[in-house]
Amino acid sequence: MELLQRKEIWNITYTHALGETASWFFVQLRDNKKLYGRRDAKSGRVLVPPRAFSDQTLEPTTEWVEVGPGGQIETFTIVYEAFQNLPPPPYAFGFVMLDGADTAIGGFFRGLDLSDPEKAAEKLSVGTRVMTTFAEERIGDISDFWFELD
User: Fold this and answer.
1) Is the pLDDT score of 9 beyond 90?
2) What order of strands is seen across the sheet that includes strand 46-47?
C-alpha cells in the first residue's frame, strides 16, 4: 500500500475562558508579580501551573501556595529555527521546578548568549538554579515572566 503525505497549514485564532483557577493565577502574575500553585489536599503536592483538580488523585485542589521565585531547570531546549507566533530565534524554553512546587512550569530563559549551542546547553543544564524575572508591563499571560540564571 502506498502511504501518501499531504501538507496542511492551520492558522487558528480563538478566544477561550480561562476559568476560575487560571484566571486567579494570571491576575496575581499581572498585578502582584507573584507565582502560585494549588495544593492537592490528599497528596499535599503543590501543582504549578495551578489546576482545579489533582492530576493524580482527581480531588479538587484546596489552597493557594506562593512558589518561587527561585527554582531549578528540569529540562530545556534551544530553538534556532523560526516558528510562527514565537520569538525570533535563537531562544531557549524549558520547564522549571519552582521552590515550593511539586510540578514544573514552562517558560523562556533569557539573559544568556545562545550563539554557541554547546556552551549555552552547559549553562542551562538540568538542576541549574534560576530566578523568575517579571516584565515591567504585564498583561496576565505566560509571557509576563521568564527565567534567568541565578
Assistant:
1) no
2) 46-47, 35-40, 61-67
